[in-house]
Design brief:
This protein is α/β, with parallel strands linked by helices and 441 residues long. Helices cover 42% and strands 13% of the residues. The protein is built from 18 helices and nine strands. The protein has helices at residues 24-32, 36-43, 66-73, 87-100, 112-121, 169-174, 181-187, 192-204, 216-225, 244-258, 270-278, 290-298, 333-343, 346-356, 369-372, 384-392, 404-421, 425-440; strands spanning 49-56, 77-84, 107-111, 156-168, 211-213, 281-287, 306-310, 318-325, 359-360. Strands 1, 2, 3, 4, 5, 6, 7, 8 and 9 form a nine-stranded mixed β-sheet that branches. The longest helix is centred in the last third of the chain and has 18 residues, at 404-421. The chain is globular, with a radius of gyration of 21 Å. The two termini are 19 Å apart.
Length: 441
Amino acid sequence: MRITRTVAGRSRRVAVLATTGLTASALLLTGCSSDDSDSNESSGANGKITLTVADYGQFGYKEAGLFAKYHELHPNITVKEDTTADEKVYYPKLLQQLNSGSGLADVQGLEVGRIKELVDTKADQFADLSKVIDVKEFVSWKEKQATTSDGKVIGAGTDIGPMSLCYNAELFKKAGLPTDRKEVAAKISGGWEDYLKLGEEYKKKAPAGTYFMDSASAMYNAVVSSNAKQYYDESGKAIYKESPSVQQGWNLAAEAADKKLSQGLAQFSDPWKAALRKSTMATVVCPAWMAGQISVNAGDANKGKWDITTAPGTTAANWGGSFLGVPKAGKNVDEATKLVKWLTAPEQQAAVFKAIGSFPSNTGAYELADVKNATLPYFNNAPIGQLYADEAKSIPETILGPKDAAIKDTISTQINNMEQRGTKPDDAWEAATKAIDKVIG
């Protein structure tokens, strides 16, 4: 699966990217220069049209000014966004609307952890986008996730979450560890086992009241995300109990909890945000969108203390990502598909990346200046554009299952219990499997 983002996974404020070359407005105009026919067709429509976009957390379109720009290009069309803070609240509502065929927006955001279930059970309720978008423009595995066995595409890819490691260089220095991003990468080049070894080194001289990592459950998610086979096999059978990636992630998380390498904080919780502000955790596993979370919650006082390096090991990983789908029951299906095509084009994805840091799934954006030359001043000018582009191109195609999100969330909860309550690993695993089996049947 691709690990889902919760409400806090899409922060309302993010780090500002430093880029060179084309401005966002220039990119937007370039992205529409070849779409004049669509513009003329929209302008010729009878009356005014309001397109509704329902999503969760933060997709970045308002922040990048894209809805306003679309109105400029199509004066008869106004786009309104209906955002639900928590995807766990959004998705059950979406299922109810699909079942009843009413209340749906013209465009619906679809989380990667849900996409397999929607492809398997609700594909006939979405417009086929295979003739609207060019699936070859996206990273090779992205659109496959939203494609049915007969080639129907129910969602156009928005962002992805290529993995890195964010670390507090000031805390590393105080603990006698290297602070240069290449030297840190070398220390963890052997994989997540090396990451825990580095954690033990950190603990020996750690500044009082600090921990090596924020959350063992976050590390678990990162470990699993770096494997093609996670919770299901190719036949659709749930294999999470025997999955090597799950076993590896669980064992490493149990070790981290036992050795007190983790502060044991659920990501995006208020204590987690406070810990960032107080600089009590030295590392956070960092999919592309996480940098914004750190910079916002750690605040200006910690600017320049953080840096970013490659994730442990040599296997690329993805954590998170979404799609835009067009329900057939919508009132403006044709216009909605045009909007989806435009929003997921390279220029618009580059603009969203510049605005909020969500990394594009459309590879055409990778050579645009606002992506290719992007750095993060907050993170010691880490060259994130190149770092994440390199990672994205080598991420393995993952086998998705219908209940990926539920399995991941349940296991993560039990890892948190090991950290916070001292639950024994065997007891935590038993509790996780019992809860998961009730969900998947």
